[in-house]
């Protein structure tokens, strides 16, 4: 079941087409940044004893961000893409607009997945709460709920991971879009986390690292990736 869910998630949300530039050096740096960021967060928590529950909160926050990232992309992504197309030369805009089909298709599948899973669970809960006797409808909903739990949840989790990583296959529009969307997404999350959780306790250096360490490091890697695309692969939006 997990293999099936993973295969479908890749087919729908990780098909980046010919537009995606594979740069192993960037992939290694991104992986190293993620690992070092997690290690640094744990080290700061243990060294300064900011909060006994901070480690658990940070772990759950990271998982929540992975799940919420595609939802944030659904809101912020269109604005970034519209700005990107508007900034492009007028001669290139029709081509970029013609490439919107693949990302829109990925967005449609993701929204449909969310609606179907939520709808089945809500209908099942309401039907069971009614407790008006067993019927064929209740058995159908019961089977559907089991499928959602066994196959739907893993699929949704992997779809969220791949959607966040590929920015809903946005590389099919232009290779520069994924790192640009990553830049926008990380700062949206930084503001959201600040408004939701506030500043952590501890010395100012710890507060700075917790709040800005992640966004600044992601920004640095994304800008470096954009520079490598221009200097190594000759990819630019404007000449």
Verbal overview:
The structure is a single chain. This protein has 239 residues and is mostly helical. It has one domain (2-13, 22-231). Helix content is 78%, strand content 0%. The protein is built from 8 helices and no strands.
At a glance:
This protein has 239 residues and is an all-alpha fold. The protein is 78% helix and 0% strand.
User: Which radius of gyration do the C-alpha atoms yield?
Assistant: 21 Å
Described by strand count, sense and barrel closure, the largest sheet is: none
Molecular shape: globular
Distance between the termini: 48 Å
SSE run? HHHHHHHH
pLDDT averaged over residues: 81
Number of helices: 8
Hey, roughly how much beta strand do the residues contain? under 5%
Derived structural class: mainly alpha
Give the low-confidence spans. none
Number of domains: 1
Number of strands: 0
Helix content: over 70%
Transmembrane segments: 31-50, 62-85, 106-127, 139-164, 176-196, 202-224
Keywords: Membrane, Transmembrane, Transmembrane helix
Characteristics of this structure?
transmembrane; globular; transmembrane helix; membrane; 8 helices; 78% helix; 239 residues; mainly alpha; 0% strand
What does the secondary structure layout of this molecule look like, with pairings?
Layout: H1 2-13, H2 24-48, H3 54-87, H4 93-98, H5 101-130, H6 136-166, H7 177-197, H8 204-231
């Amino acid at each position: 079941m997990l293999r099936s869910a993973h295969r479908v998630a890749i087919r729908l949300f990780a098909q980046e087409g010919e537009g995606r530039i594979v740069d192993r050096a960037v992939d290694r740096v991104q992986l190293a940044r993620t690992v070092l960021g997690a290690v640094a967060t744990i080290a700061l928590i243990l060294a300064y004893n900011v909060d006994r529950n901070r480690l658990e909160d940070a772990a759950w926050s990271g998982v929540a961000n992975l799940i919420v990232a595609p939802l944030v992309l659904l809101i912020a992504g269109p604005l970034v893409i519209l700005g990107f197309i508007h900034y492009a030369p007028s001669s290139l805009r029709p081509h970029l607009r013609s490439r919107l089909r693949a990302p829109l298709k990925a967005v449609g599948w993701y929204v449909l997945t969310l609606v179907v899973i939520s709808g089945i669970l809500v209908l099942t809960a309401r039907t069971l709460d009614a407790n008006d006797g067993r019927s064929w409808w209740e058995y159908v909903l019961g089977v559907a709920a089991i499928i959602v739990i066994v196959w739907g949840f893993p699929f949704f989790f992997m779809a969220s991971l791949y959607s966040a990583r590929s920015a809903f296959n946005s590389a099919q529009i232009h290779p520069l879009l994924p790192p640009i969307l990553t830049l926008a997404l990380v700062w949206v999350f930084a503001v959201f986390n600040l408004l939701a959780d506030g500043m952590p306790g501890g010395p100012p250096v710890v507060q700075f690292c917790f709040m800005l360490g992640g966004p600044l490091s992601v920004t640095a890697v994304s800008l470096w990736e954009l520079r490598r695309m221009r200097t190594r692969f000759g990819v630019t939006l404007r000449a």
